[in-house]
Design a protein that fits this description.
By secondary structure, this protein is α+β, with helices and mostly antiparallel strands. The chain contains nine helices and nine strands. The chain has helices spanning about 35-45, 70-75, 100-105, 110, 125-140, 140-155, 190, 200-210, 260-270; strands at about 5-10, 15-20, 25-30, 160, 195, 220-225, 225-235, 240-245, 250-255. The strands form two sheets. Strands 2-1-9-8-7-6 form a six-stranded antiparallel beta sheet, sandwiched between helices. Strands 3-5-4 form a three-stranded antiparallel beta sheet. β7 and β8 (about 240-245) form a beta hairpin. α1 (about 35-45) packs parallel to α5 and α1 (about 35-45) crosses α6 (about 140-155). The longest helix is centred in the middle third of the chain and has 15 residues, at about 125-140. It is globular. The two termini are about 35 Å apart.
């Protein structure tokens, strides 16, 4: 079995790359994209563009009376299922484009499995809908929305929807050939479609969780006691990141869609980390 390329960044130690990974190459960050979507929501609320409890039907063409609000979408309590309808095994989100999202929105009430606010079910579909609602409210495409509310204020440039092909890093398949990554530039983008360099991802995490440069962390972060964390996986990559209240943080990115090992390694690194400087102050941007 070939070793898996990995990149490890954490407080109190120098970044490490293993087996051909790179700090400055763009990699898919999967559901870590949700953190940016949730942070954009928080920023729009702080600027009175909208409210957390704004009903979804005010922003998108969904059936009246669903009861779903932006807060429900951000907290995974909307009652929507994990995945959009019609997902396939290979390149699962390739057909989930703007037209497919529009068709889904029109029958959103038929897709909910519980009443909004009753239960928590992690939902990629919910974050796709949330991203669409935010772009509708702002009148901006998703990438411009992120730059305006999140990336620009933080001075982070190496996050993108479609980075230069010659700067992308992929996992290897049969005979060492680069794998073709999932297509995630359509409606699923706000839920998991962004690319970033590991340096930029670490800067995002420390800016949001350690320095709190944009205020309190967004509702999109997962919580385990006092630890805030998030993970993500695509067919090509997996990532785990988190931070503690005392300033410890860690991020691990691996070029494999098999995320179990990544999700075990990340918390181990976080437990062993010591409070230290942010990634940006250590010059890891």
């Amino acid at each position: 079995m070939r070793p898996t390329p990995a990149c490890i960044l954490s407080s109190g130690e120098a970044p490490r790359t293993l087996h051909g990974h790179a700090l400055d190459a763009y990699v898919q960050i999967g559901s870590l994209s949700k953190v940016l979507t949730g942070t954009a929501l928080a920023r729009m609320v702080s600027e009175d563009v909208l409210q957390l409890d704004t009903p979804l039907e005010r922003l998108l063409p969904v059936p009246a009376g669903t009861g779903i609000t932006l807060r429900h979408l951000a907290q995974h309590t909307s009652g929507l299922p994990r995945l959009p309808p019609g997902i396939k095994r290979r390149d699962p989100y390739a057909d989930f484009d703007a037209a497919a999202l529009h068709a889904t929105l029109q029958r959103l009430d038929a897709l909910t499995t519980t009443a909004p606010g009753d239960t928590e079910e992690y939902s990629n579909l919910g974050y796709a809908v949330l991203g669409a609602a935010l772009t509708s409210a702002a009148g901006l495409p998703y990438e411009e929305l992120l730059h305006h509310y999140v990336l620009g204020p933080l001075g982070i440039t190496e996050m993108a929807v479609a980075p230069p092909p010659d700067r992308r890093l992929h996992s290897s398949g049969l005979f060492g050939r680069p794998r073709r990554p999932w297509t995630m530039t359509g409606a699923i983008l706000p839920a998991g479609g962004l690319w970033a360099t590991p340096r930029a991802a670490a800067c995002l995490v420390t800016a949001l969780l350690v320095e709190r440069r944009l205020g309190e962390p967004a509702l999109s972060w997962r919580r385990a006691g006092t630890v805030l964390w998030h993970n993500g996986a695509t067919g090509d990559a997996s990532v785990f990141t988190g931070a503690t209240q005392d300033g410890r943080w860690a991020l691990v990115h691996r070029l494999t869609g098999r995320s179990d090992r990544t999700d075990r390694l990340g918390p181990e690194l976080l437990r062993k980390a010591v409070p230290g400087h942010s990634a940006e102050r250590r010059g890891d941007t």
